[in-house]
Amino acid sequence: MEIKKTRITINNHLDKLQEDLMKQINELEEEGTSKICQLLSSLEKKEKEIEECQNSILNIKKHTTDLQMFLSIKQIEEDVYSKEFCKLQWTFHNESVLKTPYGIDVDNDGNVFVVGHRSNNVVVISSDGKRHREILTKDECPCCSTCIVECHKECRDIVELDDVILNAKTSNALFKIEETLVEVAENLQKISQHQHRNLSTLKEKRKEIEKEIKETRMKINNHLDKLYEDLMKQLYVLEEQENSNGSSNVSLNEANRTESPQQTHIYAVSCRKRKADYSFIYD
């Protein structure tokens, strides 16, 4: 009876451990799934924003003039880079050189070219943001015919505005924006696919762990069953031995108490003989 109670106590304890462990695993799975779903939702939102930007650029290139395209590149840049698609690498702030940045472009070496609206110049900044150089002064910036007459009488080699805006729709700045959007869209797609795989892997891992826990519990139960069976066999053997020893002792005692007539006669003869011996001594 005591062995059965102990076995029941062990089973209850193991059931509680298994239940708590499965509960923790389910909570971890739900937490991980929730985080992945939130990330996927955010990625989907960013992908839609990129698609909208790409469609906007296509519409602008299709329906605007070269001048409108030239003047709108700055706004396109602000719209794209304000979406937080890119990570901030460095900042440049020096009003003695650059005031009211208006346009930006990047070459293949990572150098950044910035147009200063109020400073009327173009400044190139190194890829690490630590060095800069003015490559276009205010006397070389675009201006209207009135400004040319009033402020640039001595200037030579003036370039027509039509020539400046001629390739606005195929400019390097616009190409960089489009290239950035494509690259970011591809990266977001890769991240999304990776997170979907993580979601599937998370579910598979949870199933594997649950299966392993059940198999381990089954092995423990089988081991306990074997121990219980062996112990009960030993108890039965001991009980049979005790019963056998008890029966032998009882039979021996009963045999000692039961005397045959021959044994009684021998005992009487022996007593008389001893008495005759004693009489011989005293006579």
Automatic annotation (TrEMBL):
Recite the UniProt keywords alphabetically: Coiled coil
| UniProt cross-references to InterPro entries, sorted A to Z | 6-blade_b-propeller_TolB-like
Q: Which residues form a coiled coil?
A: 11-63, 192-226
Q: Which SUPFAM superfamilies match?
A: Calcium-dependent phosphotriesterase
At the top level of its lineage, which domain of life is listed?
Eukaryota
Full protein name: Uncharacterized protein
Q: Lineage of the native species?
A: Eukaryota, Metazoa, Spiralia, Lophotrochozoa, Mollusca
